[in-house]
Design a protein that fits this description.
8-stranded mixed beta sheet; alpha/beta; globular; about 260 residues; Metallo-beta-lactamase, Chain A
Length: about 260
């Protein structure tokens, strides 16, 4: 499996960043894990968006799905004509709510661009040699970690989650833990998110092979976040930057300036 970071920021993007989005390529499949604002432009730098096999959206916060509207336009108005509808895996009710802000014509275009599927805890979805299984985590009413498996490699993307047993069960034994690290440590517990230290604790307790911090608040001190995670997790730790790539298993990284 090859993971490419397309968006590493939480809620709003800092200069040169995008919000939540990661490209996963494995087993002949190419999928997006979340599609937040700015992700589509970054995807176009590394892959043809028309080559996607599916998009998975972890939960219903806009910084995880806003660029689906842009992707819809790209699919429906491709140079060679409308592309085949793209499988879209979303929490219950999200696709219908997305259509509510559109005109009647816009809603019809959205419906023509995607084939929606509802995520359910523990229900796997296979695409070529890649299997992605959603696991409920503690954030919104319908929030999921996404656990990807191909061959002997496993990746767990926590999406947004509070610390606790649901996140731990999702991450157990993964080769690469792609964990949110939204909050600075002084804000621990103020919102259903992880700090970098809590992400490190999750990686340690789950027995993860390596840890990548993502969904980082744009004004957080990234060097401090790395140090906090490394203080509690003895494996390799890095912090996601747009266009970094990771190979799973092994979690070897090609980065743009990160440790």
């Amino acid at each position: 499996m090859r993971l490419t970071v397309l968006g590493s920021a939480a809620s709003f993007a800092g200069p040169g960043q995008a919000c939540a989005g990661h490209l996963l390529e494995a087993g002949g499949a190419r999928v997006l894990l979340d599609c937040g604002n700015g992700v589509l432009a970054n995807l176009g730098r590394v892959a043809d968006p028309l080559s996607l096999d599916a998009v998975f959206v972890s939960h219903d916060h806009p910084d995880h799905f806003l660029d689906l509207y842009s992707l819809q336009a790209l699919l429906r108005y491709a140079p060679a004509g409308p592309a085949a509808p793209l499988p879209l895996f979303v929490p219950e009710g999200l696709f219908e709510r997305m259509a509510c802000v559109l005109s009647e014509r816009g809603a019809a275009e959205l419906a023509a661009a995607f084939v929606p599927h509802v995520l359910a805890h523990g229900e796997p979805h296979s695409l070529a040699g890649l299997t992605i299984t959603p696991r409920t985590v503690d954030h919104t009413a319908h929030s999921f970690a996404l656990v990807a498996a191909c061959g002997d490699g496993t990746l767990c993307y926590t999406s947004d989650t509070a610390p606790g047993p649901t996140a731990l069960r999702a991450a157990a034994g993964c080769d690469l833990l792609l964990a949110e690290a939204t909050l600075p440590q002084p804000y621990a517990g103020r919102a259903p998110h992880l700090t970098a230290r809590q992400a490190g604790e999750l990686a340690r307790d789950a027995g993860a092979g390596a840890l990548v911090l993502t969904h980082v608040w744009a004004t957080n001190d990234r060097a401090e976040a790395l140090a906090e995670a490394r203080a509690v997790f003895g494996g390799p730790v890095s912090i996601a930057t747009e266009f970094d790539t990771y190979e799973v298993p092994g979690a070897s990284a090609t980065t743009e300036g990160n440790d």
